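Researcher: Last one for today. Full complex below.
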Amino acid sequence: MRFALFWIFSVAALGGSIGVVANVRNPINSALNLVVTMLALAGLYVLLEAQFVGLIQVMVYAGAIVVLFLFVIMLLNLRGSGTTGAEVQPLVKIAGTAVVAISSFFLLRVLSTGRAPWPDVDPSYGTTRAIGEALYTDYVLAVQVAGVLLAGILAAVVLAKKRLD
Amino acid sequence: METSTVFVALFIFAVVVLVFAPIMTWVERKQSALMQDRIGANRASIGGIKALGLIHPLADVIKMITKEDTMPTGAHRFIHLVSPFIAVTPAMISFAVIPYGGTYDLWGAHVSLVVADLDYGVLYLFAIGSIATYGSMLAGWAGNNNFGMLGSIRVSAQMISYEVALGVTVIGLFMIFGTLRLTDMGVLQEQTFRVFGFMEYLGWVEPGTRWIDWITLPMWGIVLQPLPFFMFMTAMMAENKRAPFDTPEGESEIVAGYFIEYSGMKFGLYMMGEWIEVVVISALLAAMFLGGWTLPWLPEQDIIAFLVPKFGANIANLLAMVLAVSVFMGKVVALIFFQMLVRWSMPRFRYDQVMNLGWKILLPLSLANIALTAVGILVVKGVTGR
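Model: Here's the assembly. Have a good evening.
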């Protein structure tokens, strides 16, 4: 069961991410493929006993961020007007090739280590309570800094608004 | 998967999807008719039997299935086809975590009246709800219609805005219960607390004063967090896009909004999705704020203990189970009725009013509620020592 689910989610994640980059003509299709990828990744997280991370993945990435992508695409009405690759800068091409080469190198290294067994963890691992305790005891500084960043975003909006008025 | 889980899943599917959604159309018609001093649905009949208009849902389904299924020119065919399903599926699978009762021992089997008793139950509902946005926003875009586009843009902005408030309003409740699991919440809400118990701790009355022990309230979410109950319900209703939050549909401005290009059963799926969502909202509110399947001042264990000598353990458990499901359904029906009352009493909000309500009223109030609740929990813990 778990094995079958792993393959379903993996294939969906890979297929979705290929769909994101292959759909150069239609940005909406790209965004929808991104949703599939996000959902498949969430499924993989849940399989790895990290249910909380999986759900946050669905809520934040699939449910909010890609919705915003779609919102912008719809608002600008980018229907059928994408770059086809001809006007991409050579530097961007080189950078892209480099990224692909480096990540394939690491992928090969990971794959050559052989099959890792399924994680055998105690039931409290990955629960909301465990994550909450870790966040508010061990990583409380990071949480606070993230809060300050949020306040910074709001402040930027307020300041920019005043300038506009 | 255990057999009992399959049975529970089938039961929920049968009750919710096959019974509730069609009945809801009838209830809505009849209730609005009552409120507007009309007779309401009374024409459809099978051999002269009208059954108070209960045949109408059947007539609706036949009409919707036999209607022409249109595909507008210039539409994105695939997305246009799948959007109604994306819209209706999240509403249906939400029921997986709703508890209809506790756990009961029936003839050796351990029956739990929830399909998936997840540790992160409420979060699952929020995650599923955030996926539901796609069904609506893609529908308007895929139909190649400007009114539909406007509807989609409104729907995505509205749903994203209210998702923020939706999550923040109930954090106070999570802080008090210390769990996201809906079954645990139900069990916790069985307890009662003494309303004037604080007077004993403060030394205002003699320890052992009897009248303090008599005046108790159940630890329901609505008692502990009265304001978030209403804020949460408002946010959920805004997520569901029904009146008075139906600016994405706004007939007077954008004809029908995001589902303007749909006909037949595809349109019907959007309607069904909304109605099922009404049931989800009511079930979630009942489970989180109104004590779930429990009766106030009457713990389930006491009921079973009272029934065991009369009927034996198995029948006693069965009776308690039936009682729990009926209590839960009663609460759900009452909340559905309330939502429909709101729908037919309030005029549609203007779009800026919807946004102001979400960002400038609900969000600040719920943030303040978190701070107040935190202080309250600390005070209670400090005074009672637990």
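The interface with chain A takes residues 76, 79, 118-120, 123-124, 126-131, 133-134, 137-138, 141, 149, 152-153, 156-157, 159-160, 163, 178-180 of chain B (CB under 8 Å). Residues 69-384 of chain B form one domain.
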